[in-house]
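Pinned message: reference record for Fructose-1,6-bisphosphate aldolase/phosphatase
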Amino acid sequence: MRITVSVIKADVGGIGGHTLPSEGLLNAIRKTVKDAGDLLIDHYIGYCGDDSHIVM
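Predicted structure (tokens):
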């Protein structure tokens, strides 16, 4: 079986500057990853400042 590891980074801004992404954005990311169902074996959602990232 072949496996692809993908990393997506998004700098979409945050509330009050560059401190952290909004809870709405993080919830949208979580929902999108959850809706992927069996397409993903595992994932990690994180952020550094207002930059969000997903490792799949």
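Pinned by admin. Summary line: DSSP finds one helix and three strands in the chain.
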